[in-house]
Design goal:
The chain contains two helices and two strands, in the order H-E-E-H. It is mostly helical. The protein has one domain.
C-alpha cells in the first residue's frame, strides 16, 4: 500500500485544524457513550477520544474516498451509456 504524507508547517497547522474543526463541527466534549440512559437524566460529557489530528485525517480520507466514488460512478455511467447506445444501434440496424 502506498503512503500519502502531507507535510505542513506549524503556521499551516494553526490554520488547518481550526478550519476543519469549524467546518466539520468537531466537539471537544462528547456525550459519554457508556451512559445508562437514566442516571443522571442527561448524559455526562467526556473529552472527545478522537483527537483533532485524527479528526482532520478522517475527513481528508473521506474526501478522497468521495472523489474516487464520484469519478468511478461517472466512468461506469458513461460506459453503460455507450454500451446501451451501441446495443440500440446494433439491434435497430434497419438498413
Amino acid at each position: 500500500m502506498a503512503t500519502l504524507t502531507i507535510n505542513t508547517t506549524t503556521a499551516q497547522d494553526q490554520r488547518i485544524a481550526p478550519a476543519f474543526k469549524s467546518v466539520f463541527n468537531y466537539q471537544e466534549q462528547i456525550p459519554d457513550p457508556n451512559w445508562d440512559g437514566e442516571n443522571p437524566p442527561e448524559p455526562p460529557m467526556i473529552p472527545n477520544p478522537e483527537g483533532v489530528a485524527a479528526f482532520v485525517r478522517r475527513h481528508v480520507i473521506t474526501f478522497m474516498r468521495n472523489v474516487v466514488k464520484q469519478y468511478e460512478a461517472n466512468e461506469a455511467a458513461n460506459a453503460a451509456r455507450q454500451a446501451a447506445i451501441a446495443q440500440v444501434d446494433a439491434d435497430l440496424d434497419m438498413e
